[in-house]
């Protein structure tokens, strides 16, 4: 993953993500404003049509997005996201989600994620991120 410090914040975020770990996702690489996450489609991820459930594709893209937007260090959360499904994924497919920061200013950011099966683009995802304001201390008025 490059230098020891590059991607450290994204790796720390990913290490605490129980959903990603439970689905067998792997953080392949990370750096400032970018991340690559891989996942194999299992039988448990299939919908009634026998293809990967869109929710699992969204989870994969959202995980790459979360790693990319948290790569800068401060806690960052999703403010919104949308996905376009372009091709089906099937059991045994290995999907790779590549997240890239498009714009970051102040407390907001915009990220694109492309989900691929080999050279085939399976989905395109766009996420908006927001870094919450630090909590302010409130005087104790109960005493």
Would you give an account of this structure?
The protein is 20% helix and 38% strand. It contains three helices and six strands. The protein has a six-stranded antiparallel beta sheet with strand order 1-2-4-5-6-3, with helices on one face. A hairpin with a 2-residue loop joins β5 and β6. α1 packs across α3. 29% of the residues are buried. The model has no long low-confidence stretch (mean pLDDT 92). It is of the alpha+beta class and 143 residues long. It is elongated. The longest helix is centred in the middle third of the chain and has 16 residues.
Spatial extent as radius of gyration: 17 Å
Spatial gap, N to C terminus? 52 Å
Distinct helical segment count: 3
- How would the global form be characterised? elongated
Q: Strand percentage, roughly?
A: 35-45%
Broad structural category: alpha+beta
According to DSSP, the number of beta strands is 6
* Uncertain spans: none
Reported for the largest beta sheet, the result is: 6 strands, antiparallel
Helix content: 10-25%
Sum this structure up briefly:
20% of the residues lie in helices and 38% in strands. The protein has helices at residues 8-15, 18-22, 54-69, and strands spanning 26-31, 34-40, 77-85, 94-105, 108-117, 120-130.
Secondary structure elements and pairings:
Layout: H1 8-15, H2 18-22, E1 26-31, E2 34-40, H3 54-69, E3 77-85, E4 94-105, E5 108-117, E6 120-130
Antiparallel strand pairs: 1-2, 2-4, 3-6, 4-5, 5-6
């Amino acid at each position: 993953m490059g230098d020891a410090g590059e991607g450290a914040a994204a790796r720390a975020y990913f290490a605490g993500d129980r959903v990603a770990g439970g689905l067998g996702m792997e953080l392949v690489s990370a750096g400032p404003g970018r991340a690559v996450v891989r996942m194999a489609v299992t039988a448990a991820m299939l919908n009634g049509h026998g293809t990967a459930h869109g929710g699992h594709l969204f989870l994969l893209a959202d995980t790459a997005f979360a790693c990319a937007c948290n790569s800068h260090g401060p806690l960052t959360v999703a403010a919104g996201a949308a996905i376009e499904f372009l091709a089906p994924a099937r059991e045994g497919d290995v999907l790779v989600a590549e997240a890239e920061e498009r714009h970051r200013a102040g407390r907001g950011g915009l990220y694109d994620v492309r989900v691929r099966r080999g050279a085939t683009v399976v989905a395109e995802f766009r996420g908006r991120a927001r870094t919450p304001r630090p909590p302010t201390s409130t005087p104790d008025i109960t005493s």
